[in-house]
Write a structure and sequence with these properties.
By secondary structure, the protein is an alpha/beta fold. Helix content is 41%, strand content 17%. It contains 29 helices and 33 strands. The protein has a nine-stranded mixed beta sheet, sandwiched between helices. Strands 10-9-8-11-12 form a five-stranded parallel beta sheet, sandwiched between helices. Strand 13, helix 14 and strand 14 form a beta-alpha-beta unit. Helix 24 packs parallel to helix 25. It is globular and about 95 Å long.
């Protein structure tokens, strides 16, 4: 017998392979395969793991850095400074140091020059007539040239954004640059269509735009581009100057006229910009409420303001959703722009039944995120502003009782970086839940019912957007209507569409995003008052004393009325659908133009205002839930009842103002027309499942004094027609008309609390309204110092503010007293974005 051992299974396999026709060389190579791909036994767990799997499991990322040579070459070729009259204008002031926060290396020094504002304004004044009145087609061709130039130099723009702000290069190229190009194309189209579509609007003139230190390209797309398309000259004050300067340079290369776009650098220049009378509108996105407060305090003239604080979006995950997809999306979008942009996810609500499962998968995903040089394509997250890192570390140190997990990535030795951190089981009552913590920090909480989740999101200070993750369509449709945010993403997050209008909630002014409404934000109705404010500076003493209570009225020495001829009339407050006395039982005499006492006016207090706001907030869900048809019928009935008493109203107007009876009758007839028009609009605020117009909420209205009935009805009608509830401060000079109107409202089927009237001195009461957290918007028509105070309080309370001087608008004009100029303030735009899927992509 042979002494050789029987062949092994592997040898038999080798022979079998050789027998099938392979050469001996192949057989020899085959014998080496066990050392390469054959299964080996893992000594630790006893399972077979291929070396291929072991290699991929332990695979190290290789560096894939983008070159910044072109960006540095452009910087070194320029004498950097303020960009004025289509050229760089280096100043002689303080040097602004610009560093790459990913490496802490110096990029350049930029000299600032606050005095260049005068030159920038001179150029803008010279250019605004030609640019604003330019034919829409010609302006569109200019913007098209800018778009093409941005596309040609897109990589350079993305790299400049990356080295300036620390945002990951893949996000700068794939997201921010794409948004800028898409927005440019969109508003190039609106410039072409401006004549037929916005023929009743005109440009403001010169618009000041303040840009944040992160996501500069995105904010250029959201603020600078639509302002230019609307025919305005724009002066930009950026926190990160390099991307803005490069964009301005590309505009010059594209042939943009001189003076249309200017860039000023430094704090001195920003302060000079805010105090210049030539600025007709202020728009901005700032990193903190303190910055917003400082900007408003620096304003020297009352102008329209649209300011927003950079916040974060939210996410709701239901148990019936695709958990893996939600986790993947959160890991990507929570740390977009290092968690310092509007689309970044800051708060996550997860249904209790899947909370543990979601957190385990999220922890596994987060642990693999890489933090490092923003110019390296292999890194997921770039650098973070140092002040945001300090804030995050403070929050984490103060909440050590919360469970948390972080990425296992090692931080570079140089640069400003923060490890991505997730805080678990954060209670909505915790102060940090509602704070917009900029940076790579995510807060996760659980919820049980859908109503609970909606209540938590709607009580947030920031209403940017929210993504909903669920496979149940009926639930999704309910949530899209109930969530008080500007954008609702369905099973996705962060997708932008320039053509669809949305509106940030809880912001100062009206912060639009996309669509023709964003274009109109930078325009004024052509028939509206040319200047809504006076040319005089705001008196700081008047601002300081605004809202102080006037001294109490003293009793008169002689009778106010003859008891034998008439009955002493006492006006009551109208709150919650009932006539009520003031909390302090204090009254003032109401006199006619000739000095005759017409009645007693209650001197309302802060408590009365709070009661009125509480009644309005209680009535809002029911009133906004009614159909537009139902609201229109009620408004028609109100107009019908007023018509029956038109002679009484005309008589009161004539007695109060001293005008002729016929003039009073004309004001009543015009007021009836306003109510009919509001009723007609009630069911015309069209909404679709994907583009919705939501009522604002509780609106505080300080009515103009000169038109006691017409001004009141012109504002009241559209507000309640859109589904809002109101607290009105009627004219304190001529309040009897409002008192008679309350009696009609009480018998016109308007539910209690929808309309509330509070009488008294307008200044202290309007200040109380502006400071109330449950008032979502303030419409103020009064003195210049009051307009400034309303804007300041809007910043403090994240409130929409519409303010004008009381005598600038012609309320008896059909165009100035009706239409878009008023309706636009009655609702908020909401867009619902749902991916179409790829089943039929081919």
């Amino acid at each position: 017998m042979s002494s050789e051992s029987p062949p092994s299974k592997r040898q038999a396999t080798d022979k079998k392979v050789g027998a099938t026709g392979f050469s001996d060389e192949n057989v020899s190579m085959n014998k080496q395969l066990p050392d390469i791909i054959m299964a080996n036994e893992d000594e630790q767990n006893g399972h077979f793991v291929s070396k291929e799997k072991a290699i991929f499991k332990n695979l190290e990322y290789s560096s894939a850095k983008e070159s910044d040579a072109a960006a540095m070459a452009w910087i070194n070729s320029q004498k950097l400074g303020d960009f004025v009259m289509n050229k760089m204008s280096p100043g002689s002031g303080e040097m602004l140091t610009v560093t790459n926060i990913s490496t802490d290396k110096l990029i350049t020094h930029i000299p600032t020059n606050g005095g260049s504002i005068a030159e920038a304004m001179k150029g803008a004044r010279e250019a605004k007539e030609g640019w604003g009145k330019m034919q829409g087609h010609i302006r569109a061709r200019h913007l098209y040239s800018v778009t093409r130039e941005v596309q040609k130099q897109g990589k350079l723009l993305a790299v400049m954004e990356c080295i300036s702000t620390g945002v990951a290069i893949r996000e700068c190229k794939n997201v921010m640059l794409a948004d800028l190009v898409q927005t440019l194309y969109h508003f190039t189209g609106w410039a072409e269509l401006s004549s037929p579509e916005v023929k009743d609007c005109q440009s403001h003139g010169i618009v000041a735009v303040l840009l944040p230190e992160v996501a500069t390209l995105t904010q250029i797309a959201q603020q600078v581009v639509p302002a230019l398309a609307a025919g305005n000259c724009v002066v930009v004050s950026p926190a990160a100057p390099l991307p803005a300067l490069l964009f301005a340079g590309l505009c010059v290369t594209a042939g943009l006229p001189s003076g249309v776009l200017s860039v000023v650098i430094g704090e001195e220049a920003r302060q000079a910009l805010l105090s210049d009378r030539n600025v007709a509108m202020l728009s901005g996105s700032l990193s903190s409420k303190e910055e917003c407060r400082s900007v408003v305090n620096s304003l020297q003239y009352p102008i329209p303001v649209s300011l927003s604080q950079v916040g974060k979006s939210s996410m709701i995950v239901f148990s019936n959703s695709d958990i893996d997809s939600a986790v993947d999306c959160l890991a990507d979008k929570a740390f977009y722009a290092s968690g310092q942009a509007y689309d970044s996810v800051g708060k996550v609500l997860v249904q209790t039944s899947c909370y543990e499962k979601f957190c385990k998968r999220l922890e596994k995903k987060i642990s693999k995120l890489r933090v490092g040089n923003a110019m390296d394509h292999s890194n997921d997250i770039g650098a973070t502003a140092s002040k945001n890192i300090t804030a995050i570390k403070e929050v984490v140190s103060l909440n050590t009782h919360l469970s948390q997990f972080k990425s296992t990535s090692a931080l570079p030795s140089e640069g400003s970086f923060q490890i991505p951190t997730v805080l678990l089981d954060v209670q909505p009552s915790n102060d940090i839940w509602d704070e917009a913590m900029l940076g790579p920090l995510v807060k996760v909480a659980s919820f049980r019912t859908t109503k609970e989740a909606v209540a938590i999101i709607n009580h947030s200070k920031q209403g940017v957007g929210c993504s909903v993750w669920s496979e149940k369509n009926s639930l999704i449709m309910q949530l899209t209507k109930q969530l008080n945010v500007g954008t609702v993403w369905v099973n996705c997050h962060g997708i932008r569409e320039s053509s669809r209008p949305s509106q940030y909630r809880n912001c100062t002014g009206s912060v639009q995003c996309g669509g023709v409404d964003l274009l109109k934000l930078y325009m004024a109705p052509s028939a509206s008052p040319k200047h809504s404010f006076s040319d005089e500076k705001i008196d700081p003493n008047l601002v300081k004393n605004f809202g102080k209570a006037s001294p109490p009225a003293l009793p008169l020495d002689k009778p106010t009325v003859d008891p034998e001829e008439s009955v002493n009339r006492t006006i009551k407050l109208f709150i919650g659908g009932a006539l009520k006395r003031s909390a302090n039982d204090s009254y003032r005499e109401v006199r006619s133009s000739t000095g005759t006492v017409l009645g007693s006016l209650p001197d309302a207090t802060k408590k009365d205002v709070r009661d009125a706001v509480e009644a309005a907030a209680k009535a809002f869900p029911g009133w906004s839930g009614k159909s537009g048809y139902n609201r229109s019928q009620i408004l028609y009935f109100l107009a019908e009842n007023i018509c029956r008493r038109k002679e009484d109203f005309a008589e009161v107007i004539a007695q109060s103002t001293g005008r002729k009876y016929d003039d009073g009758m004309q004001e009543v007839d015009t007021s009836l027309q306003r109510l009919f028009m509001a009723a007609a609009w009630a069911d015309k605020f069209a909404s679709s499942p994907w583009e919705q117009k939501d009522p604002v909420g509780v609106i505080g209205i300080t009515a103009p004094a000169q038109w006691p009935m017409l001004g009141l009805c012109s504002l009241l009608g559209p507000a309640i027609a859109a589904g809002n509830t109101v607290v009105v401060l009627p004219s304190d000079k001529f309040p009897l008309v409002a008192a008679d109107l309350c009696q009609v409202i009480a018998t016109s089927d308007i539910p209690g609390g929808v309309v509330n009237m509070v009488y008294g001195s307008q200044s202290p009461l309007s200040l109380t309204l502006a400071q109330h957290q449950h008032v979502q918007a303030v419409w103020y028509f009064g003195y210049p110092e009051g307009c400034h105070v309303m804007t300041k309080e809007g910043v403090e309370n994240n409130k929409q503010v519409w303010s004008e001087e009381y005598d600038k608008r012609k309320w008896n004009s059909l165009v100035q007293g009706t239409g878009y100029t008023i309706n636009n303030h009655c609702y908020n735009n909401k867009v619902v974005i749902m991916p179409a899927g790829d089943s039929f992509a081919n």
